[in-house]
């Protein structure tokens, strides 16, 4: 089955099938007016998935995307529905996801890169929280890359949740879920926006430690389990010999400022856990942003000097 006829009226025929799952298919299409690529998420209402899914869940995802307008959040262009399908037309990201990108690099990156990724991740979260949205599935694999920018995607677990409100819905990826989420079955009063910050903190730990998740036990390609004792305590071990990893390809300890920020994001005490807005004001993110600007200026100066002496 191709893209729904109503979508074909606005976009060229699909060029590439990007993926397929129980919900339906994601296509790459071309906007007739701009000649730019878009991604079309087509939900097949005739498949078994639809039988168990509520129409309201799909509408919620659409409404959340419509409420967002930020460079670090995947943009919703429009959507169509007919008797067989719902087609959601989204910004197309050609750079893959952050998880794949970092694995290609062996999780080795410069400090300025780690700071830039963290800043963009938290900018997206701050934007959602300001609009009363909790994503509930922040992780590297849910950030797509487009022209060097991170774009938060996959809003299947997202919900409208005002600041201070709580939810007891058990959703998310366990390795990135905060203690208050894991404790739902043991009487936790619920969770709110801070769970997104916790997940971003786990991601930051991976960025500055060569890809090591703070709460997963076991080596790659072996059975891995969550260390719940460390998770509940928010215990981070940056000093372990298996960690290290940024600053120009050579393994070095994670910068103290990054460690401090990570610890304040991965804090079991919800009241002490930083907000996304507070993270964006952190001294480490400010310094790495300034360093990145200085690096670019230095390269330009060297290029100019080379031309003048050439």
UniProtKB/TrEMBL annotation:
It comes from the Eukaryota. The keyword Transferase applies. SUPFAM superfamilies: Protein kinase-like (PK-like). GO terms for molecular function: ATP binding; protein serine/threonine kinase activity. Residues 12-285 form the Protein kinase domain. InterPro entries: Kinase-like_dom_sf, Prot_kinase_dom, Protein_kinase_ATP_BS, Ser/Thr_kinase_AS. This is FhkC protein.
